[in-house]
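User: Last request for today: this protein with S-adenosylmethionine, please.
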Amino acid sequence: MKNEKTALVKFLRAITLYTAYKRLRNHYKKLKLIWITYGTNDVFVSYLTNIRQNKKIEYKYKEERKQFLFKTQVLKLSNDWFTVNIPYWLSVIDEYKLKNKEVKALEIGSWEGLSSHFILSSLPKAHLTCVDTWEGADEHKDGTFATKDVLSQIEKSFDENLTPFKDRLSKYKGTSFSFFQANPTRCVFDFIYVDGSHHGDDVMIDAVKCFEMLKVGGIMIFDDYFWQHYKKSVDNPATAINLFLKLKKDSYKIIRMYYQVIIVKLKDRY
Ligand SMILES: C[S@@+](CC[C@H](N)C(=O)[O-])C[C@H]1O[C@@H](n2cnc3c(N)ncnc32)[C@H](O)[C@@H]1O
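Assistant: Here's the final one, the structure of the complex with S-adenosylmethionine:
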């Protein structure tokens, strides 16, 4: 009996050590990625200081995430790249008291409308502008994350999924670049989600132009900070996001940092 107990204790200790090792290795990999993609000091600090807070956020909003998943079972979806973000987004919505505000929101990259659905259902007074080519990005066109069949249906699915919100939705079909050219406005949006093309060149343009369109006090979210798809690390989102943050030093504050980076705008250029 005593021998069995000792073996069990040893086994549990080994599992704990292995889990801790895996966690540490994961954090080390992420910190290394921040380093090689020219991460700013505040990105390092936010990454490290948010580790514990992130666990609490995920726990606090896990029921809301489940409810959203349940509610959206009826939608036409081929993928869920979004719902993992729900706890973080809800924590920001609560902290910045956005729920009952007349939020003007912009989304670059809507796909089948899952994130758009979340924005419009969690912010009942929001108006959302969705910008997408509805042709897919590099990683969909090259077959990594979508089949041709799925690609041919994404716009139709978006339209059907967003039907209940059509009065609070504007749709712009085209590249984000063409949207910025057609809408040369400053400081008009309260909430912007950047999730279009993930190639560094496009992320850079989206970041600069969206920041220009964001009101002071507005929230901007970058998706896929740690995503590594392109062979050259400079072509992945992190390098562009880091260089953008360097460029806008003192004009923003990082408020959440996990797989996404969420900032609040503190100052405009003028
Ligand atoms: C990852 S998906 C968006 C996912 C969506 N936000 C969600 O969470 O469900 C990226 C989208 O960006 C679109 N896209 C790619 N390049 C674009 C560009 N240059 N301008 C606008 N949209 C683009 C693609 O068609 C695709 O629908």
